[in-house]
Amino acid sequence: MKIINQLGIIMGFWITGDLLSRLISSFVQIPSAIMGMVLFAIALTTGVIKEQQVKEISDLLLNNISFFFVPASVGILAISGMTANIMFKVIAIAIVSTIVTMFVTMWVTHALIKRKKKRV
């Protein structure tokens, strides 16, 4: 039951992000998932939501994150008529973007840990 409540908290932020995204769509186009993540990050940073309130579901989702990339991978493979030249470009873009994402994530995590240690 605890995991369902935690999933409800995360889904609540996603739905709120979707509503907010639809409200501001005439001004700026921001995907609802991104808006929900920003709202969730703000809630965690300000202490509205405590880490312990979503820890179990977060660990579960992060431990199984590769599962969420299966539909995208199958979609890429399902594209018919993809020539070798285009396939090479898609693979190169995927590799470069993965490396950049890993380094940015590493840098942000390092900066946040350093900042947290300074507070304590």
Brief overview, please?
This is CidA/LrgA family protein. This protein has 120 residues and is mainly α.
| Count of separate DSSP helical elements | 5
Task: Please state the structural category.
Answer: mainly alpha
Major sheet characteristics: none
Number of strands: 0
What does this structure look like?
The protein is mainly α. It has two domains: 1-63, no CATH class; 71-120. Helices cover 76% and strands 0% of the residues. The protein is built from five helices and no strands. The chain has helices at residues 2-23, 32-46, 55-63, 70-78, 84-119. Helix 1 crosses helix 2. 5% of the residues are buried. It is found in: Cell membrane. Its main location: membrane. The chain crosses the membrane at residues 30-49, 61-80, 86-109.
Key phrases:
transmembrane helix, transmembrane, globular, LrgA/CidA, CidA/LrgA family protein, 2 domains, 0% strand, 120 residues, membrane, mainly alpha
